[in-house]
Amino acid sequence: MYTLARKILFQLDPENSHDLSLDSLGAAERLGILPWFCPSVPRQEKEVMGLRFPNPIGLAAGLDKNGDYFNALGKLGFGFVEIGTVTPEPQPGNPLPRLFRLVEEEAIINRMGFNNKGVAYLAERVRKRRYQGVLGINIGKNKVTPEEDALKDYLKCMDVVYPLADYITVNISSPNTPGLRNLQFGEALKGLLEGIKEKQAQLAQQAGRYVPIAVKIAPDTEDDGIASIAESLLAKEIDAVIATNTTLDRSLVASSPFADEAGGLSGKPLMARSTQVVSVLAKTLSGRMPIIGVGGIQSGEDAVAKMAAGADLIQLYSGFIYRGPALIKEAAKAVALAHAK
Length: 341
Ligand SMILES: Cc1cc2nc3c(=O)[nH]c(=O)nc-3n(C[C@H](O)[C@H](O)[C@H](O)COP(=O)(O)O)c2cc1C
Known about the structure:
By secondary structure, the chain is of the alpha/beta class. 38% of the residues lie in helices and 16% in strands.
């Protein structure tokens, strides 16, 4: 079914086809016909960050930036759904075109630039939530906010989403917001994490509920650098790390006509590097902090490899675009089978 839909959708401009698919999904959910199209995904309960996940396969951030579609997406069998990245103020993102399909390479290049309707809009959507599963909310900074004021943007978002989220992801790894990735290193990282932990403690007291914080990192740092980021996250008692965001590396897609498009590359060519990052994290953290592995998972086998590298949970994005909801079931089954062995 999805193979047929994909044939049609892939004829359209990528951003139009993205909007059309999500609108259709939302409509199917409202009409109550979505279960007809949903694969049944095996249960494989797991506790991570103090939360119970029905299965370890999640939807990665960026597909539902404003919280418009998570009720429908949550019905497709995902064990958790992450929405955002959302910023304090609405912003248009980069000029079009900003999304490119590298079909032969099973990859995507995007330079969306955090196009979103702002945190207040997303919060309104989440307040009306029907989805009962685990919901992560991914937060970022506005493009116009100077790098040295980044913390203020994260804190503004936390104030709004804390009472609504099951976990919050601090995104410091998008390549499409100038300077954002600098927050991953040294004093900038320490200062940011301190501010975020302080805010978490304050909000936990106000809300009477502890909401875990995950930090999402990029793959384009040497292994030593990844290990030192892991040490910093551990020292500041961050609750989880998400690895990885998209890559700037084009070495595996050099022959694509889109290779020179600016932005982050995701999908199959990202699998090896992002899995290596998970391995480095697992070695450094040795079980002291959960790892959410994301990047290049296009099959059940990839899902198993990501878990074997040390991921506690995994997320899909590009693979979901290329393979549709069938990939959720395939990944969950493969992981369950590997676990049983
Ligand atoms: C079009 C597009 C938009 C994305 N937007 C975001 C985003 O807003 N925030 C974020 O943390 N990651 C974003 N990502 C990154 C994904 O969440 C994921 O980390 C990355 O694509 C690697 O996984 P994949 O290879 O399965 O796609 C985006 C990815 C794509 C392809």
